[in-house]
Amino acid sequence: METAELAVSTSSELSIFGLFLAADLLVKTVMILLVAASIWSWSIMIQKSRSFRNQRNLTNLFEERFWSQESLDDFYDHLGSEPDGALERVFGVGMREWRMASAKGVSRSLGRELRTSLVSRIEKSMSLVISKEMDELEKGIPFLASVGSVAPFIGLFGTVWGIMNSFAAIAESKNTSLAVVAPGIAEALFATALGLAAAIPAVVAYNKFSGDLEKIGNSLESFAAEFTNLIARQLDEDAS
User: Fold this and answer.
1) pTM of the full predicted structure?
2) How many domains are contained in the chain?
3) DSSP characters for 49-115?
4) Is position 2 within any domain?
5) Are 129 and 88 in contact (CB under 8 A)?
6) Considering only 16-30, 50-64, 198-212, which range has the smallest mean pLDDT?
7) Apex 37 CA angle, 36 and 38, nearest 5
8) What is the pLDDT at residue 9?
9) Considering the domain boundaries, does residue 4 fall inside one?
């Protein structure tokens, strides 16, 4: 009977909730921090997954429509004043610079050096927008890198501290039976498990999102270069 009661008691202590309750204040703090970091990481991962998927869809739709259009001005007018996609906003700022020059009639009267200056100004305006868009898309991603690199060490610190307390308790009780040792060791190792549970998804997501960011950045920069080439050709045709 006593053996059965001891088994039930040990099983209860080795449950997730039991391990948390049995831990001392410092280890509990470590566990809470790791759980909070994991929850925050998953919220970032879900939000970024949706954001990047939405950007890919908007980019594909924009490129399909852009390269099939016949008039840049008509296409720009159809986009509206507040486009949703990053590529649309990059195109929008380039078109605003171009339209300001066209409205003043300077695009037809500029010399070669001034035409080059206008193209450079358009390119710089688009580059600034690209930087802002990339900064916005990158928000939250460095936190995933921090969790991926720091969480295992925080968990390990909780484990080391918990094992030190366990050995101290064993020394005081002078009892080395498994029933006495197991809960303390399991409680300590649980902190490392939480650290790994927080770090592994964060590292995988960080690598995935970093690749997605690079693709989006390359897409925006490629479009900006193609658009400025279109403007440069238009200026050369107007001047000839």
Assistant:
1) 0.79
2) 1
3) HHHHHHHHHHHHHHHHHHTT-S-HHHHHHHH-SS-SSHHHHHHHHHHHHHHHHHHTTGGGT--HHHH
4) no
5) no
6) 16-30
7) 90
8) 45
9) no
